[in-house]
Amino acid sequence: MNSSDQQVPFRRTVVSYVQRGERMTVGQQRAWDRHWAELGSDVTALPEGPLDVESWFGRSAPVVLEIGSGMGETTAQLVAAQPDVNYLAVEVYKPGLAQLMLRAEKLEVSNLRLLRGDAIVLLREHVEPGSLDEVRIYFPDPWPKKRHHKRRLVQPESVELITSRLRPGGVLHLATDWENYAEQMREVCEAESQLSNRYAGEPGGWAPRPDWRPVTKFENRAHDEGREIHDLIYERV
Fold first, then answer.
1. Active site residues
2. % of residues, the chain, pLDDT over 90
3. Using CA atoms, how far apart are residues 151 and 40, in angstroms rounded to an integer?
4. In Å, how far from its chain's centre is CA 105?
5. Is a pLDDT exceeding 60 seen at residue 3?
6. 216 — pLDDT class (breaks 50, 70, 90)
7. According to the model, what pLDDT value does residue 12 have?
8. Is 217 annotated as a binding residue?
9. Which of 56, 78, 81, 126 has the greatest CB tally within 10 Å of its CB?
């Protein structure tokens, strides 16, 4: 498979997420009312063409995109730990984005912007080729039943698209606690010719768990249930 700096004509009919309820707590609603207009945008409301990241952040800096920030437990800490990057979080779940803004507010971060909607649409239609320094996909929905594997986010077409949006030397970092999904991630990424496994020399090609990635309650639950956490870190060549 070859990635290029041209628009990747990826169209999909199956999405990797489920639409969930949008009822928010009082605190989440307040955070949404205070910050969304400034810090967030719906993917469907973006102007046609590439997102002007520098104008949105008011500065030029390395750009990190996290796909699926959930309730923001990890994301807020990662943003606070990297004030020198422009951090984009894309998530479909409105209360999760509101909770992330609430967490970010408490940590007094200013380098976070949020996008609500389909990450694939965002990447395909609003992210320029070679413009991202890192893409992070942490604990995506595993869709454990075999008949649902086609709904998993990490597929050959999505990885090709992500890779095309990374700059040379840019990083794709994945983590999951489902062994079958981890093996699928590794297989898909190894087949992408523009990606190189940073830890190819390690057993199985798995990356050591980065100590800077906060441990979430979901990760702790995985440990309690006997599931091993697998990290994979690839660079665009």
1. 141
2. 85
3. 26
4. 21
5. no
6. confident
7. 53
8. yes
9. 78
Distance of alpha carbon 93 from alpha carbon 132, whole angstroms: 23
Give the torsion sign (CA, 176, 178, 181, 187).
positive
> Mean pLDDT for the chain?
92
- Closest to 161 in 3D by CA, of 137, 139, 128: 128
pLDDT tens string 71-122: 999 999 999 999 999 999 999 999 999 999 999 999 999 999 999 999 999 9
**AA identity, residue 4:** S
Helix 26-39 to helix 94-107 angle (10° resolution) is: 80
Q: Which of 106-129 are b and which e, b meaning 16 or more Cβ less than 10 Å from the residue's Cβ?
A: eeebebbbbbbbbbbbbbbebbeb
145 in a known ligand binding site: yes
Best CA proximity match to 44, nearest among 76, 10, 90: 90
Q: What is the number of alpha carbons within 13 Å of residue 77 lying toward its C-beta? A: 9
118 is annotated as contributing to ligand binding: yes
| E strands in the chain | 40-42, 63-67, 86-91, 112-116, 132-138, 166-176, 195-197, 230-236
Compute the average pLDDT of residues 187-198: 98
The Cα-based distances of 23 to 41, 89, 96, 99 in angstroms read 19, 20, 10, 12
57 is in an annotated binding site: no
Query: How many helices (DSSP H) and strands (DSSP E) are in the chain?
Result: 8, 8
Name every residue whose Cβ is closer than 8 Å to that of residue 88 and which is 6 or more positions away in sequence.
53, 63, 64, 65, 66, 113, 114, 115
